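Class prep. Write one:
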Amino acid sequence: LGPLISSTTLACTKIAQDNKVPLLTPSATNPAITVKDGKTLDYIFRSCFVDDFMGSVMANFAANSLKAKTAAIYVDSSSDLSKSTGQVFEEAFVKAGGKFVSQEAFLSKDTDFNSTLTKIKAANPEVIFAPGNYQEAAMIVKQARELDIMIPIVGVDAWDSPKLFEIAGATALNNTYYPGHYSPDDTSAAVQK
């Protein structure tokens, strides 16, 4: 079994492919993990969706389920996951009839998002797409709510951590959404919890 995240999985793929050793990642979503130069790699596999799919699904969710017509994108400019899903989200949201009123960026390990969130609030979007890791996402959500930004905030699978709730607080996470790699129809106790 390979690593969990895309950056470390990408570092392993050449070694596994060259030595004909199957590598399976359960959660690395970068499309380049299984395809190189347009060709599917023979020994590299994943059991999850890819960034492009995730960005598109979240854009369609924002436009169709949340009925948002305007959006803000707030990406981690130091993260390939964040940048790629942000780009796909933008394209899919526009295709679904949406419009962007704000595009902002932060860096991994940032902790103060108030200034940028104030700019986003002034642009008056109906939804914010914040494709970052759970640490920054939790602080963005918490600080947004403290600034009375109560619109939906949507993210990516990297939000999926119990620490998200510890950092942001359960109340702040109301009206937030992110995709998961499991089925809610699974009846196991761990999934239901």
